[in-house]
Amino acid sequence: MTKRLSDSITASLLCCALGVLGSISDSVCAKDRLLAELDLEPSLESAALVLAVRVDEVLPVRVIHGGKGGQTIQQYRFAPVRVLKGVFTRPELLMTSADLR
């Protein structure tokens, strides 16, 4: 391989590496902006219970309204992994998609 070809390959690889690093830094900046807009501290201070959970099961549940119309919602079965604030002594937590809105 000639020195000229070797230098052009090295220069091309360096440009690609700089481009990748630039796009990574852009995504890191976007993530920082998103986290700055998502301020959870007031919500966490006023909450009585804060849990870290694992989703064990998701089931569809059909809800009938007035005998005619129906709607399907999701029922989530959460297993508590860690209690961060408050007291939670049950083995699982059941919530629907309507509860999570």
Q: Could you give the topology of this structure?
A:
Blueprint: H1 3-37, H2 41-46, E1 50-65, E2 69-85, E3 93-96
Antiparallel strand pairs: 1-2, 2-3
The helix-and-strand class reads alpha+beta
Q: If strands are numbered along the chain, what order do they take across the biggest sheet?
A: 1-2-3
- Alpha-carbon distance between the two ends: 63 Å
Question: Residue share in helices?
Answer: 40-55%
Gyration radius, to the nearest Å? 25 Å
Fraction of residues in β-strands: 35-45%
Mean pLDDT across the residues is 73
H/E topology pattern: HHEEE
Secondary structure tally: strands:
3
Number of helices: 2
Low-confidence spans: pLDDT under 50, at least 5 residues? Answer: 1-25
Main sheet characteristics: 3 strands, antiparallel
Tell me, what's the shape? Answer: extended
Commentary on this structure:
- There is one protein chain.
- This protein is of the alpha+beta class.
- 41% of the residues lie in helices and 37% in strands.
- Strands 1-2-3 form a three-stranded antiparallel sheet, with no helix packed on it.
- A hairpin with a 3-residue loop joins strand 1 and strand 2.
